[in-house]
Amino acid sequence: MTTPADEDFHDALRRADTGRLADRLDARACSPDVFGRLVRHENLRIRYLGLTLLTERLASDHLPDDVESAAFAALLPGSAAGPPEAALVLAGLYERLGPYLDGRPWPLWRAAQLPVRVRIAWLRAELLNDPAMLRKEPPGELLYQAVRGASVADAHRPAQLVDELARSGDPVLTAAALRLARQGLHAGLLARRWSVNSWCGCSVPETPTSPPRRSRRSPSHGRRWIRCRRSCWPLSRPGCGEHRTGRGRGGAHDRGPARAPSPAAAGRRRSRPVAGSPAARDGTPRRPGGPC
Fold first, then answer.
1. What is the Cα–Cα distance from 219 to 230, expressed in whole angstroms?
2. Are the C-beta atoms of residues 75 and 54 closer than 8 Å to each other?
3. Which of 20, 112, 173, 254 meets the CB 3.0–4.6 Å disulfide criterion with 12?
4. Cα 63–chain centre separation
5. Residue closest to 96 by CA, chosen among 51, 48, 40, 37
C-alpha cells in the first residue's frame, strides 16, 4: 500500500528535488531501500544527498546492527569518481563499513584525480581497516597526515594498528603508535601487558596478577619502573626493564617517589601559631618573639 508520504518521496526523487528530499527525509528512520534509491540515483546531487544521510545515520545514537551494517555496505558505490565532496563522504563510509564489505574490492582511489584532503581520507580509511597495508605503503607526508588524524577508537583492529606502526621503524609512525597506545590504554581497548610487551620487547606474564600490598610508609611500595622508548610506565611486579633503585650514573642514590607526610608532621603544622616560630616538642606554642 502506497502512502501519501511515499508518493511525495517518489515524486521528489523523480524530479531530483534535493530540497524536498532533504526536508522530508529523516536519516534515523530511513530504510536501506530508501538509501539505495538515493545512492544509486543518476543525479549527482541526489547521490551526494544519499551518502550524506547515510553518514548521519551511522553517526546517530541509533546504531545499526550487523545485518543493517551489511545492508548499508552493499549500497556503497564501487568507484570514487565524482565530485570531491562526494568522494570525501564515501571515504568515511568505507572507513566505517569496511568490515562488512564481505570481500568486495575497494574503489581505485589512487588512480582517480582527487585532492590531497580526499586522498588522505581514503588512505586513513584503508589504514584503520587493514593495518597490514603499512608494510607496502611508502612513508611520506600523505601517510603521516593520515596517521595523524587516526584515532584508536575508530580502528577495527587497534592492537594490530599500534603494532604495525611501532614496527615500521619510522620515527613519525613510532610516535603515532605511542599516542594511539596511550589512547587505547585510557579507553580500555588495549591490554596493559600488550603495550609493555610491544614497547619493551620483553615477556610479561599472560595471567593477570593482583597488585602487591602497599605499605603505609611508602605509597609506591613494591612498584618498579621500566624504561620504554619514549616514556616510563610503572608495573605492579618486576617483569622487564630497568629497576630505578640503587645508584645512578653520577654515583648518588635516587630519591625515589615522594612520601606522604606523616600524621605527626601534619599535627605540628596545625599547631603552629599565626605569627611566631614552630610549636615546641611538648605541643605548647611559643610566644611570638620569644626564644627559639
1. 25
2. yes
3. 20
4. 19
5. 51
Q: What percentage of the chain exceeds 70 in pLDDT?
A: 62
pLDDT for 90 equals 95
Phi (first) and psi of residue 264, to 5 degrees: -65, -40
Task: Give Cβ neighbours of residue 116 (< 8 Å, ≥ 6 apart).
Answer: 142
Q: Is residue 243 part of a domain?
A: no
Q: Which domain holds residue 184?
A: 130-202
One domain for residues 146 and 100: no
CA 261 from centre of chain: 38
Residues 141 and 56 both lie in one domain:
no
Residue 175, C-alpha cell as written in the block: 610516535
Residue 6 belongs to a domain: yes
β strands within 116-167, DSSP E: none
Cell of 129: 581497516
Alpha-carbon distance of 221 to 18, in angstroms, equals: 67
Say whether both 31 and 76 belong to one domain.
Answer: yes
Count the domains in the chain. Answer: 2
Answer with the one of 202, 222, 250 that is the final residue of a domain. Answer: 202
Q: SS3 helix, strand, coil % of the chain, rounded to 5?
A: 50, 5, 50
Residues 72 and 155 in one domain: no
| Residue 83 located in a structural domain | yes
Q: For residues 228, 230, 234 and 240, what is the CA-based torsion angle, rounded to 10 degrees?
A: 0
pTM of whole model > 0.70?
no
Give me the helix-helix angle, 141-148 and 171-187, nearest 10°: 10
Of 163, 184, 202, which closes a domain?
202
Supply 19's cell numbers: 530540497
Q: What would the pLDDT profile of 188-230 be if each residue is shown by its tens digit? A: 666 554 444 444 443 333 334 344 444 444 444 444 434 444 4
pLDDT digit string (tens) for 148-157?
988 888 889 9
Is 278 contained in some domain? no
